[in-house]
Amino acid sequence: MNDSDAPSRAFRYAAPAAIAIALLALWQGLVAYYDVPPYIVPAPTVVWRALVSDRALLFASLEVTLVIALTALAIATLVGTQQQAALTAQFLLVPNMLLSGFMFPIESMPKALQYFTTILPMRYYLVIVRGIIMKGLGFADLWSEALALGILGVIIFSISWLRFRKIFG
């Protein structure tokens, strides 16, 4: 690599960054100038503050999204057709919603079902969401649920990966 490539490489990275910064500044300026309410179009600073203040909820949402995506991958490696995958996903989705504590409190379920709910990702996600939104708890208070959700994700990923390797070599 010679020295004549250095300015073009620097421009290749600096130009998009400068355009992005200019667009963000324009967005901030227009929202402030026209006094647009944040519920219509929030300013970039408002978006950034929300991302920082709600990072625990965003992390939990990312975690449950990954677990659901990995569950879908596991289903896809276990069944033969797309129709079977869709039916299997529905078969798993309904108990997950009904037994997660979303519709019926887990404490009012029989003991066997209470133990069964420990393998449902939605249970842990609902505890995290309720803790953050309704009780104002932070990640330090909800780390055990996040850890359980992460462990479920690792188990489901391992099953998916092993099945995927077995099928596709």
Fold and architecture overview:
With 169 residues, the protein is mainly α. Helix content is 75%, strand content 0%. It contains 7 helices and no strands. Helix 3 crosses helix 4 (82-99), helix 3 runs antiparallel to helix 6 and helix 3 (55-78) runs parallel beside helix 7 (143-168). It starts with a helix and ends with a helix.
Architecture blueprint of SSEs:
Elements: H1 5-33, H2 44-53, H3 55-78, H4 82-99, H5 111-116, H6 121-133, H7 143-168
Helix pairs in contact: 3-4, 3-6, 3-7, 6-7
Task: State the main characteristics.
169 residues, mainly alpha, 2 domains, 7 helices, 0% strand, extended
**Percent of residues in β-strands:** under 5%
Number of domains: 2
Low-confidence stretches: none
In one word, what is the shape? extended
End-to-end separation in angstroms reads: 39 Å
What is the CA-based Rg, rounded?
23 Å
Find the count of extended strands (DSSP E, 2+ residues).
0
